[in-house]
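Example A, followed by Example B.
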Amino acid sequence: MSERLRASKLTWRVTLAAVLIVFFGLVVGSKSAVADGADVPEQVSAYFATGLVPRLADLYTSGAKDGATAPFDATAKVGTIRRLSAWTAAFSAGRSTDTPTELTNDWVAPVSDKSGTVLGLATVWINPGSDLPELADFVLGSTLVAAVDTAPATMRLVHDSDHSAWFATDGKKLVPLVAGTSGLGAESTVADYQKLRGAKTTEPVGTSAAANPGLVFAGVTLGVVVLLLAVVILLPGRKRRDGPESVAGDSAVDDSMVDDFSATTATPPVPSPATPIGE
């Protein structure tokens, strides 16, 4: 093989390796940026900018839904986009963990009209089926938007959907934005809330039966049915076993009676040969 051919193959391999390294670097880098929540994916940003308001107009403009008259038009404005976090499975299970929260597939942003009046908070997600961003939820009114706006930009925004609560956290400190049914009304810590959350979701022992009298009745009814079935199934077998035993008993009595009769009845003597007359 000529030196020129060898050099050409070597150059091709080096070039291919460099391309692969750059490609994987870009992929990993983009994923890291999204995972850290520092950047909003381009397709999500584009949907908030051009697709959200028309979708809201379809759903909430007068005539599209009863009682909805929100003015969603080209003058509506979308505010700052923030990615939502949620409690991890380990945190929800009450286990000790260094990662109590995880990023979700949801982004939120306030929507207001041309005068600056807040119309509501929109939640957008990337549909796993189509891999396209879509409107996931929209909460009309300014209450939730005002609460979310108080969350520091340096803290994660946590939506506790199990308790209809919203929090801001840095991993240790926990600030309730919307208490919901969480029971947390003031600033606390993630560890303390985990204990409170576990206490609220633990059902006291012995309350299930009391809260479900129908279940007790069903259990008693089932027991009676099983007992009746057992009687119906076993009774014919009992009768069949009793029959042969009675017959056998009667036979035993008859045999004994025959034996007793034979024992008490004298056997007639066998006559001796007759003596000839005249002898």
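Example B, a separate protein, is given below in the same form.
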Amino acid sequence: MSKTMAFLLAAIAGIFMGSQPAINSFLGKEVTTKLAVLISMTVSMVLMMFYNFFDFSFDNVRKLQYVHPFYIFAGGIMGVFILYFSAKVIPVLGSTAAISIFIVVQLIISVFIDHFGLFGITQSLISIRRIIGISFLLIGLHFIVR
């Protein structure tokens, strides 16, 4: 994949990440937050099932029995909580404040993941530039949330 395509896909993901919590929150007001998350996860699952089945490659499914360590499956559990918590906090904090908190915390956690090379990520040590960047993010978050 080219860097240009990677940037484009990252931008599209950002649009979706910025929109999904508000959409799920809106759906949660119409039904319940729990049902909104269930609907969102079910739609995601069905789409990914179709995407995987139309690939006609079942070799990867067979590899599941050899996947280690077991905690790498925690992403699905985390996804449920991400959807649920975001749908619950958007009506209270507003979309801008909530998503700003999500982004700042994600970036801080990402710096630690990179620094320690966790989860198979290539290690990238914390630098003074990153610390300054995080400081600016925290200052910006302060202005957004106030």
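On Example B: The radius of gyration is 18 Å.
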